[in-house]
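Obj.: predict assembly geometry.
Materials: sequence records (below).
Method: joint structure prediction, all chains together.
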Amino acid sequence: MNKKLKSVLQSRELLVLFLLFILIISTGLFNSNFLKANSIIEIFNTSLTLMLIAVGEMFVIITRGIDVSVAAITGLSAVVLGTTLNMGWPIALALLATIATGILAGAVNAVGVTFLKVPPIIMTLGTLGIYRGLMRIIAGGSWIERLPQNIKNPNIWRFLDIPFFVWLSIAIVIVTSIISFKYKKARYLYAVGDNANGAFLLGIPVKLSLFSAYTLAGLFSALAAIVYTSQIGFISMNAADGFELKAIAACVLGGVGLMGGVGTAIGAAIGALFLTAVRSMLVFLGIPGILDNAFAGAILLLVVYIDYRVRKSLEYKQIQARAQSEDSTNTGVNQ
Amino acid sequence: MRISKLLKSWEFALFILLVAEIIILGIINPIFLNLENLLYATLDFSHILLAALPLTLVIITAGIDISSVSVMGLSSIVLGLTWVAGAPIIVALGVALLVGTLAGLFNGVFTANTDVNPLVITLGSLFMFAGFAQGLPILLDKLNFKVAGSGGLAAYQYEGITGLPYSFTDIASTTIWLIPLPFIIVLVFAGILALLLHKTRFGRNLYQIGVNLDASHYSGIAVKKVLILVYIISGFGAALAGIILTAYFTSARADLGSDALLAIITAVVLGGSDILGGKGTILGTLLAGLVLGYLQQGLLAIGISGDIIQVVIGAVLIASLSIRAMINAISQRRQNQKTLLSRSSERR
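Observations (raw structure tokens):
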């Protein structure tokens, strides 16, 4: 078999996509309403915030880091968006401020991790508290409501019966994937995550790569904030609360390795789609939707366990093959 | 020599920080300095210590357990449901502790038998336990689990289970020599864990596993058993925390403690444990937990809002870590210079 094809077939993205497909089909067999295009598109539409956050998280995890502040950045950016809009800023300027907030918040994480040498989980745990606190301080502790219509409009736009935001997010995920495969500097992130010391010796700017990973996570969290605000139409103080852990779960499900150097934007997106689909599936199956976290957690553990077993059996086969080839060369020498 | 070593230790620095903090906050607001008040304030963060102390052991092995925040809620709702089902409260307590221990066993077995990152494993179990805790009342209804005189358990899902007997909720209001019972439980638990960590072979093994897993295997440590036990202790501590929270709020809820993750990990890391394993003490975590707890209480007492306090705690976490990283870098550089100097003099 073609080597490239084989590696695609063994990829985690495909395993999860396959699992998702089976779950969708079996839910559809139980309740045919689930297979209607509308409900599938609706799941896709609901998953977008998580999807964008997960793609941002992916950059950081690829460098062998972790960012638990992404959802807090989404919340903070959303509050900036809502506040500036309600202050009467033109929408373009407000969106710019939102994205700048995300990039800045990501850059703060980046400074802590690359220059102050604080372990990523601690740095981002600290900024998680800081950003969530800032968010409430800026908003004055209450929900931000009565947003102007122009921010809510994009949520209604449709093209070929599919919401504008779905197209936009698919485009972002595909473009990100292409860039991270074809653009040499994007490969630096993978090299740094796989072996930071080796990358340094090869002349790869390790610090700059790390810095850009955390900043990109901030940028994507801000994009998620824009989609979130437009879709929901108001900003509550626990906006995107808990999405940091879901984003990490989505990445892990989609094959982004926490040990660094492995992962794709498409994988992270599939993971996010999967986690969102679980809740809808439970509802269509007549199981209380509140159990979705329990099922999502169990599926995550199942997938990493299957992955572990597959990896081990492959390693075992490799060792066996090597032992056999060594045996034959040894006998050759003896003769 | 011994005293100079003590003075240089991180725990001593934390102790000084704790005293300074209480004095400064006391000067701003004298009411805060009242001994009874200081002891009573521990009620607000006893559950964080109960989860952070055993987490220290986990982090020393280079692992992590973030599922403890879900185990708190799970043990709380299990306690409530067992009591609603008609069991005496003491049995309900036992079942809650058992559930926490089993949750820890699950994490431990998974961690010990695979090479999957413990963060991923406990992330999965965090979702699993939290979802299970939230869905448990409805699930029991669906299984036609009938309780006499009850109109379905689903109502408990959002409201929590109240009306627990005073013999149980009094745990939170009982004091012995002015010290609240929950804080005594914290101190006893800390004492047992300190003995376990610093005075037994098991404890030494934890450090070695954290420094070098492969070497621990080769040196004949029963790594699997040790790891499983560590996660069990973590689950047990979280269940204990859930029980104390239930008594404190006089209501059993599935989401108790779910917002404590930041505080728990901050306490362990501020206490001097290295997130990469091999370093940490029980005393450090205990002192750091008190520093953080009183910081929060004190800031509230002088009228600072909870939102700003969250910012302050995040900043304290980052500042303490970056200062320690800087000190390490400087001492490393000094050592390198010394070695260079001694080598160049040798050459001469």
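Conclusions so far: Chain B touches chain A through 48 residues (CB under 8 Å).
To do: check interface contacts against the pulldown list.
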